[in-house]
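Structural prep section.
Before we set up the soaks we want a predicted structure of the protein with magnesium ion in place, mainly to decide which crystallisation condition to try first. Input record follows.
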Amino acid sequence: MEKISFVIPIYNEEGNIEELFKELTCVADMLKHPYEILLVDDCSSDGSLGIIKVLAARHKQVRYLSFENNCGQSAALYAGFQHADGDIIITMDADLQNDPADIPTLLQHFGEYDMINGWRADRQDTLSKKIGSRIGNFVRNRLTWETIHDTGCSLKVMRASMLKEIRIFRGLHRFLPTLMRLEGARVLEVPVHHRARVHGVSKYNNLQRGIEGLYDVIAVRWMIKRHLKVRIKEFND
Ligand code: UDP
Ligand code: MG
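Run finished without errors. Recording the tokens verbatim:
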């Protein structure tokens, strides 16, 4: 049975980690897969690391990494991907906005698809965030020939062997469906629940996300155009 690695980036989420662990293990224990939970602390300045260490000491399925400095969500995910030893990698935010109860539904499609991306159809965020995200997805889709409604949804199920081939740079976690497709992945979007953030604060604002996102989209457009599509016709050993 394929092993699952849950990879969760954490930056100042002390109010959320224990509840997330409870909800996630409740769902994961019911899956028929062995699993690990990889908590990646992106140099939190609150009590997150202390809570992570207690969980890791008490539960053998919990592993953790902690950064020396704050490197951002893409870096936390990338480090997690490289350290994960599962065949399937599932990502989600640490802030309880994603609902672990959606995982079995997403997993049903794994096999037929190599990546299943959540789609927050009824998103519980501020209006400005929802508008910003709409514009972001529209521009991203137009410039990268994509059709993904909600690339920012962190709840994603991915084939580890493909994901580990991707070199991720800052900001590129927002392009994972496209980068996975470049690796040959079949990608599906599935509607998922979304909850309002109760503890802690969002780490992003629209302006910063917009400026960085535009820069990133140009890089990804270049990657798609320059992607090597080699199909070997013949070879000898
Ligand atoms: N995060 C991180 N490093 C950062 C910023 C965010 O690891 O520098 C984590 C954060 O703790 C959360 C996830 O990335 O688990 C998404 O962040 P956030 O919820 O602030 O983003 P939003 O949902 O508001 O887009
Ligand atoms: Mg969030």
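Observations: The domain at 4-226 is CATH 3.90.550.10 (Spore Coat Polysaccharide Biosynthesis Protein SpsA; Chain A).
Flagged for discussion at group meeting.
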